[in-house]
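User: Predict structure, ligand zinc ion.
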Amino acid sequence: MLRIPCPHCGPRDHSEFSYLGDATVTRPADEAPLDDWFAYVYLRDNPRGPHREYWHHAQGCRQWLVVERDTLTHAILGAAPAREASPNAAAASAKDSET
Ligand SMILES: [Zn+2]
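Assistant: Predicted complex:
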């Protein structure tokens, strides 16, 4: 059993969450080549060790989180709101400040 430390709700059983995938992938620019978009949509690494993943607290606060989990031991190393910890968050906030 995994205990995920939701920053809003505290430690919760992983059964309250839905796994949503790799949180290390960054969205390419709109005008990026098709190969970049193909890699963004379909290609993923299968790392051994600490890895950042998207989890949705579906049966709790309904927030998206970035959880760092060791894929070898399943130890949870930390969790943060996705709007702050996502690799796309910095790009999104920079884009918001342009408008
Ligand atoms: Zn929560």
